[in-house]
Amino acid sequence: MAKRDKDMKQDDVQFDVEAATGTDDQQPAEEPAADSQEPADDSQEPTAGDNKERLKEKLKQMRNQTSEGDEAPSTSLRFRDVLGGDFLWALVRRQLWLIILVVLIITAYVAVRYQCQQDAIDISQLERDLEGAKFESLSSSSNLTRMSRQSNIEKMLQAADSIELHPATQPPYIIDVPVEK
Predict the structure, then answer these.
(1) Is residue 24 within 8 Å of residue 18, measured between CB atoms?
(2) 3-state SS, residue 66
(3) pTM (predicted TM-score)
(4) Percent helix, strand, coil in the chain (nearest 5)?
(5) Under a CB-based contact definition with an 8 Å cutoff, are residues 26 and 14 in contact?
(6) What is the Cα 157 distance to its own chain's centre?
(7) Which residues contact 54 (CB under 8 A, 6 or more apart)?
(8) Residue 99 near residue 92 (C-beta atoms within 8 A)
(9) Mean pLDDT by 10 residues, the chain (181 residues)
(10) Four-CA torsion 118, 120, 123, 125, nearest 10 degrees
């Protein structure tokens, strides 16, 4: 199959060369040696034979530059190419680096979005923990205030018979100490 396509391509190229030169001969042109070529005189007009030789030389150079694995660009889209996957594979092969770049960008986008969602969940959990800690702190503070009232301290002392502390019945004395200057 590939050999037939290659032969067809060569026939097309040969046909193009013949159409450009206006001849129908199938004999390959001899390649002129680089040493034997004399510089062309600018005053002479190129003849049809010179044009044909130059065209064949360019054709040989193009054939040498292309490898057998290269496919000629297809100008028509056939139904068989679409169903066989040739069309899609050619498109993917031409745009491979772009496809890889897009896949990497999409992967990074998904990863960053997932990380942001995880961070949002962590933040909401920490806010609930903070709210619970505030309520616990407020509750502990109110319990401490309630327990440190004088009436509650007296009740606790009376309940514990082993401690012999009694509330003072006389007001405290104020002692003035002179400050030395």
Answers:
(1) yes
(2) coil
(3) 0.39
(4) 65, 0, 35
(5) yes
(6) 74
(7) 46
(8) yes
(9) 54 53 50 49 65 86 68 66 76 89 97 97 97 96 92 84 78 89 76
(10) -70
Compute the distance between CA of residue 152 and CA of residue 6 in angstroms, rounded to an integer: 107
- DSSP tally for the chain: helices H, then strands E: 6, 0
Identify the residue whose tokens are 């056939």: 78
Give how far Cα 107 sits from Cα of 62, 100, 120, Å: 42, 11, 20
- Which pLDDT value is given to residue 124? 97
- The Cα–Cα gap between 135 and 143 comes to 12
- pLDDT value, residue 26: 46
- Token pair for 13: 């190229």
Element holding 31 (H helix, E strand):
none
**pLDDT value at position 4?**
55
Q: Which two tokens stand for residue 73?
A: 């660009």
Tokens coding 125: 């959990």
